[in-house]
Design goal:
The protein has 295 residues and is mainly α. Helices cover 72% and strands 0% of the residues. The radius of gyration is 24 Å and the shape is globular.
Length: 295
């Protein structure tokens, strides 16, 4: 930024600082609220400077650790399987569309783009998944509907393949007798780490934060609830909170923290994302810039 004026630099840093604070302060308030006493939350609401600190929410979580750990395990399992399938399907689809000699390539690309604008709606989708594929109350309901592949990821990855990987590499490999599978795994994927990191992060966030599939398709098997479904049910119904593992809560003398518990579970759900994101950030930014701007 050596060619820019001092006033422009000051304005830029100010805008970036304000934008960063707008992202960090809500997270900070969330964490502080989870360590605020329930009585202070009830009396004064959320505050960066609570009048009374407390561990009511985390004590309750500890008393209900069986339910929380089961939800955590399901979330991790669904995220790992979902990201693996999503990355595999998206990569194969995008690579096929990046081949300029593919018959019907433009038509297929149009249908991919069409899915970004229109869909069949909630009721037809629900009927299809429950009555045709029979995934209700199964782990597949948390993996397949809406999340396994989306048009945006396919288009971004296709654009990356077309703009960042020279055609000459694939042509040279074909002259040496390599097929499409060999080209994909030996040439394309090793050169596509930024976009792979991008799609992994986007897909992982989608699966980790998903609660709609659990709300729509999981009703009779509570052991399939993810951490987001547990949080959503606690937020939408205080009766669920009061009745969840009430026996152990009463036995341990812990009051049910109906407000702070929401913040505490949200903090727990955020921890893996906060740990993983810094390692994928560089590839995420590079992949988005190259895959979308150049495309």
């Amino acid at each position: 930024m050596g060619g820019y004026s001092k006033s422009f630099k000051i304005l830029s840093y100010t805008v970036l600082t304000v934008s960063s604070l707008l992202c960090v302060l809500p997270l900070l308030l969330l964490i502080i609220s989870s360590f605020t006493a329930e009585s202070a939350l009830m009396a004064n609401g959320y505050s960066f400077f609570p009048k009374q600190w407390g561990l009511d929410a985390y004590q309750y979580l500890w008393s209900s650790r069986g339910q929380i750990l089961q939800a955590y395990k399901m979330t991790v399992l669904v995220t790992l399987i979902g990201v693996t399938l999503s990355l595999s399907v998206t990569t194969l689809f995008a690579y096929g569309l990046s081949i300029r000699t593919l018959p019907g390539r433009s038509i297929i690309a149009f249908f991919v783009f069409f899915t970004m604008l229109f869909n069949g709606g909630l009721i037809p989708s629900y009927l299809m998944w429950t009555q045709t594929f029979h995934i209700k109350d199964t782990v597949y309901a948390l993996i397949f509907p809406n999340l396994m592949m989306n048009g945006f990821s396919v288009i971004v990855m296709r654009s990356y393949f077309q703009t960042s990987i020279p055609d000459g590499l694939a042509e040279a490999a074909k002259l040496d007798g390599a097929g499409e599978w060999r080209i994909l795994f030996s040439i394309v994927l090793p050169l596509s780490k930024p976009i792979l990191a991008t799609i992994t992060l986007l897909s992982g966030l989608a699966y980790w934060n998903d609660w709609m599939n659990g709300l729509y398709y999981i009703s009779g098997r509570r052991e399939l609830y993810t951490i987001q479904n547990v949080l959503n049910r606690m937020v939408s119904s205080l009766d669920f909170l009061r009745n969840a593992d009430m026996t152990s809560a009463i036995a341990s003398g812990i009051k049910t923290p109906s407000i702070g518990i929401r913040m505490a579970i949200a903090v727990i759900a955020l921890i893996p994302i906060l740990i993983i994101y810094p390692f994928l950030q560089k590839g995420f930014v590079k992949g988005i810039v190259i895959g979308s701007v150049k495309g």
